[in-house]
Amino acid sequence: MIHAMSLIAASIFLRDAAEVDDALRRAVTAVSDGAGLVEWRVDALAETEAGRNVIAVLVQQSPAPCIVTCRSVSEGGSFTGDLVDYAQVLESVAAGPLPRYLDVELAAWLGEGRVREVVAQAVVQAQPDGDMGVLLSSHAVEGRPADLLQRVEVMSGQADAAVIKLVWTARSIRDNLEAIDLLSERRKPMIALCMGPLGLMSRVLAPKYGGLLTFAAQTSSSSTAPGQPTIHELRDCYRFDQIGRETQLLGVVGWPIGHSRSPQLHNAGFQETGFDGVLIPLPVPPEYEHFKASMSALVDHPHLGFRGASVTLPHKEHLIRFVEESGGRVEEQAARVGAANTLIVGAAGALVCLNTDVPAVVDALCSGMGIEQAELRGRRVVVFGAGGVARAAVGGLCMAGARVVVINRTHQRAQDLVEDLRQRLALDEEVLAVGAAEQLTGQDHQIFINCTSVGMAGGPDPAGSPLPENLPLDDGSTVFDTVYTPVRTPLMTDAAARGARVIPGTEMFLRQAAMQFEAWTGQEAPPSVFREAL
Ligand code: NAP
What we know:
By secondary structure, the chain is of the alpha/beta class. The protein contains 19 helices and 20 strands. Strands 7-6-5-4-3-2-1-8 form an 8-stranded parallel sheet. A 6-stranded mixed sheet has the order 10-9-11-13-14-12, with helices on both faces. Helix 10 packs antiparallel against helix 19 and helix 14 crosses helix 15 (388-399). The longest helix is centred in the last third of the chain and has 17 residues, at 505-521. The protein is elongated. It binds NADP nicotinamide-adenine-dinucleotide phosphate. NADP nicotinamide-adenine-dinucleotide phosphate binds at residues 313, 385-390, 408-410, 413, 451-454, 456, 459-461, 482-484, 505, 508-509, 512.
């Protein structure tokens, strides 16, 4: 197997000839940001003579070796011409200064004899001192093509192709594993990537499997394919330059998962501690079947080095079920509250799951109040919300001996949570009950914890606060908002103005993440790096 360093190719699309100067400037910036190649996407330029005439300028003045790509509509690009037109475009490119790679679509290569003729001439012309290579490419926008393996076979057998490129839209994270397998088994330099929000893993892991390159955009608004990361994301968040054969994979699993800060935090921690790993968002649709299929595929893959995952909404209960069904171990606190947020995959594939939200919420509360955990015993706490975070908070507080009242918009959901936790933790009504906001007096309770999404930026009610307006608070009251985006929520501002002590959700988030980090790496999480990355 050939193993070479993978490059970042900055993909730059031009709408018309007037954009040449700007495109060249963007390329210079991309190269200084770390791109080793520039892909000139000339599909729109190729539609007009004026556009075709400036392709030579792009190649000539490219600040790094370049690929010239004219992507047809049928393969996800914008070039509308037929195969004869396509051949003419390649001919005009071949007549000018030659790029390092000339992208040639497989369909045109096989379907139009003129294409192969033009390309063969250009390759000969590039010899002996030029080094232009044909990058034979195939793109399937709809999803994995049924004849993927035949395509690989045909493409690998084309003597004139220096590189072969296979791209398709990922329908599940398992598509990425197939891309990885293609790279592992390649017979010549290869690019194998998945497009779309589910394809990030194949883009980030290209260096682990010796993929020739991964494409990146200069800014998130300038990406030339769905799911393409930016150069900054690849290098700064996913540590692209450090990824190698031995790099272990971790994930943050949820649906949706794009908003998660876990990659920033953990990858910064890996960088700081020298742990050879990368954590990537792994979107998995809500149903258990999807979760089980995705997790099994990751755990069982022989060359992936999947070390574990942070698991979030809506899979925290699924994680326990999956680990139990796989014969793994569910740690005590997770088993007691019926939800887990961390998967650890041992060296021999043994699975363990735990819940770091539970100790994190209790610890964040106690340290915010300046008390020992034992001092929570008998304290009266109001928890707003009855979802996943509420389960961890209520479970943790009850296990620490607090008396908890749960208030939720949907009363039945609060009822279900309370009944379930009462049964699991063998608690009576005195310790855990359902309440209503109208009944709060402020005298009975001094600790209030928001576990709803109210106040979360981008959530259902970003300007709202779950605290009743007339509830009296004073300096003996504590208000803990588990929402952590923004760091200072409307609830915190409101509670602080009413004299209460406030604890931000970041305190919980950082603690649960630090415990996950330690569980995976065996090393202490670097606190200042975590805080900075948040
Ligand atoms: P979840 O399971 O979806 O639960 C959402 C809760 O918010 C439910 O109780 C829901 O009430 C309530 N809610 C939603 N919209 C509401 C509205 N407009 N008015 C009143 N109540 C509303 O979510 P989760 O996983 O528990 O997460 C909840 C929040 O915790 C997240 O938004 C996030 O900001 C925060 N969080 C913090 C951390 C941390 O470490 N600090 C970690 C994860 C999440 P219904 O039952 O009536 O729908």
